[in-house]
Structures
1.
Amino acid sequence: MGEHEFPVLKPVARFERPIIVMPAYNAAKTLRRTIEDIPHGSFAEIILVDDCSKDDTVDIARSLGITVITHDKNQGYGANQKTCYDAALARGADAVVMLHPDYQYDSRAVPFFLGFLALGICDVLLGNRVRTRHEAISSGMPVYKYISNRFLTTFENMGMGQNLGDFHSGFRCYRREVLERIPYHNNSNDFVFDTQFLAQAAYYGFRIGDAPVPCRYFEKPQA
């Protein structure tokens, strides 16, 4: 085994405590629909971390009965994820699903994504929004975003030795051991956090995969 390789994780019959984490900022308009689509019984807990939203995200989250953590000041997307993962690990998660609460990703896929991890097929699984060009554009993905996604994903695959279809997905699943091993607190507090995390996962020899997930696009809320 090489110096930086990580042992292949064994399959499990099922995860006992899968936790969904949602890094949130101004998600009031879409949060309820995102949560309502998640199949009952596919998670033990939902944790939402609010990064000083200017809308009713926190009030809506609390009305839905999920766990809510709030930042005292806006810290950035990467910092939000750090709080998400710290909380999930502290609350005993054996698998973690990171899902943006913007209703872009089809959250009905949560139990199927967890299944890939439980079977031992992957240690990290990403939702792929760009199964085909036609499907991505038809879902509402702006052309400029599609082009930049294709360029960056190709470059990142070459650099990390991976074969992923979408490096910038906001729907990601991790086995607990991945979060315990990766020093994600060293990463940026900004959006580059996601790419840094995947580079670390590749560096430590975790098996990274993706699966198609239907998406929808909406006008972004004003900051």
2.
Amino acid sequence: MPPATDRAQPGRDPLPIARLVYFLYFTGFGIYLPFINIYYNDIGLSGVEIGLINTLSPLVGMLSAPLWGILNDRYGKTRVLLAVAVVGSILAGWGIAAAGTFMVLVPVAALFSLFYSTISPMLDSNTLLLLGDQRERYGSIRLWGSVGYVLLTLVGGYLLERLGLSWLFPIFTLCMVALLISLMWYPTRRVEIGSTPRLFVTLWSLLRQPRWLVFIISVMLVWVSANGMHTFLGVYMADLGASQGLIGLTMAIGGAAEIPSMYYGSKLLKHLAAKKMIAISMFAYMLRMFCYAIMPSPEWAPAINLLNGVTFAFFWIGSVAYVNELAPDEIKATSQGLLLAVLNLAALISTTFAGWLYDTAGPANLFLILSASSLAALLIFSFGTIALRKNHTDKTVVNR
């Protein structure tokens, strides 16, 4: 195995700064994600237009995230690349605030995705390298992102209700500036690799693995469901008469529900393993979408969002760990970028279709279909994994 290069300061624990960086990144995520589509709705965009914006942006992320990961794996300039991504996100965010029409918003939102989509996979891959042989502790580091998300969705919802939705851009900027400052002390670690052609050969060997293909197909289906929810739950609640405060509370409860799962992530991985965590999350997503479909009023949403502790938390811990298991050391950042690319591809498929369903079939039917998508993901992942394991066992017996 190639040696790892550690740029953390000798004698200092790098993990407190890693926790802080996650916290600050997800404060920005917590003010932007729950409210940007409500902002689009507030300035007069239709469900289809909101869906189109949320389709083109993931398309950019799908293409750009692996490229950023390849740059990071090849040259190891993690801190520099993160700083560029943060500054670009700030500038593009203000571009969204200044855009007054759908035609202007589309390219600006895509530019935002070009920068913002790269931050999470680079943080995840670097954290796993910092943890070394203790990668099961990833969840206990990532939980600080959930804390930041909860804080800003809860406080931000009430602030935006009083100040107006346009204030999400100044608040987002403050969060990103704090993140940019913290990167000055952010520790990085990378694996020394050979030439660029070797990197692509290793990447191609990963993409051809049957386990990777089963994982990719099932992840796409479950993220079609999750992304449809992320895009239209707030809009659905607003249409049902929910205040910005109730929407922010709902998202904050969902984020808070992640924290215990993230904190005990190492124990969960030890007792359940990554594949079981992914399967459990898919079942929980199916149940969660069904509950949204039948809820009679928006006041039910906070209780339903408690399922986020199993849906997203189990999905993310399990998926990051599983991808890390499948990928060779020299393409760890690239593989995490590929995971994000798959999620962006699922979002690309989901958002326009979900927007069309929201406008034509109504939100209840939309969430019923999203529930069915999660069920399909569960069946493909579970039976595909069982079939591959049985095939491997049969080959082992024949070889003997």
3.
Amino acid sequence: MVQPHSRSQLLIARARALGPVPTAVVYPCSRDALAGAMQARAAGLITPILIGPQARMADIAAAEQIDLGTCEIEDVAEPAAAAQRAAAMVGEGRVEALMKGSLHTDELMSVIVSRAAGLRTARRLSHVFVMDVPGHEKLLLITDAAVNIAPDLKVKADIVRNAIDVAHAIGIAEPRIALLSAVETVNPGIPSTVDAAALREMAQRGEISGGILDGPLAFDNAISAEAARIKGISSPVSGKVDILVVPALEAGNILYKSLVYLGGAVAAGVVLGARVPVILTSRADSPESRTASAAVACLIAHERRHETIEI
């Protein structure tokens, strides 16, 4: 039998074997943020550069018995300034990943999406969860459950492309992608079915490459080949799905949290579409999820060393 969370442990081992990635940890001014960065360092995944108020971070480390060791520290007082400094360090070539600390997500993301920061690429930013679900035979990617609220067709195309890049980085050569909706037929009254059909056509024309797309598909028919068979649905994705593309943020957020809190899944989260991957953790994330998120970002950063990113 497959041991629970063995696949996320394998991701961590693969990333560790490639070596740590220099990572700007943006405003780690809480116990969880500081401990998470040190945990990723101890796992051999990142070489952290802590950006925030030095005295405050030192006080937290002392109070919580967190060993900062010889970590490089950039003494920056405010969250927004810390995010701007992290962006500058990407431009200087000093870091290959960003990790969110205890600042608000909006404070970090607003800097990343600003033209002045120089982190934007031709792609839309989107979030991908890499889920290790006990009882499921392989890793399952869910997108977008954290950044894009109600994506239109153009944004969804980039969401799919970003997810394919993550799949490739973690070792899935030709991911199978389910474009989720409530039904399997195109219904103008359900916009996600229309988008799914358009995305499938884009893939057939080569506008989206690197994976096998199908949809619209309901969740059961994406996950279960038997459910698809009973309903008379023939799909190259059913029962073999690697990536679930949700119609909107609410659906993705509910889905991933259901798998975590009812299914015991480990969720590794990362933002794609910028010049470097962004480790976007939540205050409620388990230590295992934080480390797995760092591992996914590490694998993406190593993959990008051999690519040219379109700005």
